[in-house]
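re: ur question from earlier - yeah i can do the single chain one, its not a big deal. heres the input i used so u can compare w yours
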Amino acid sequence: MWVKTPEGAQKQLAQYIQQVDDQVNEELEQDLKDNIALQMKNLQDSLKTQEVVAQEQKDLRIRQIQEALQYANQAQVTKPQIQQTQDVTQDTMFLWERSAGVDD
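and the output i got, formated as tokens:
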């Protein structure tokens, strides 16, 4: 399609620029939607993983406390002998388990 006047050429150029602009906007909008959806999925997966790890740590801590209570009952311990439970770290419990030969 050939344009015969400068005004017609200017109008055709403006239409072409608008078409390109619209197409770029649509592509950018879709890219943004895709990126947001991917980020949401990644965050949801990360949250699920963190929830699983937190539950595993909680379960481990409960097993450790139950085992310590069992040993305390067997030894007829009624008062803390070494330190308060809140002072015992996960690392300390891990070392105690390993030194006692306890396996998960």
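The two ends are 78 Å apart (CA to CA). not sure if urs matches, ping me
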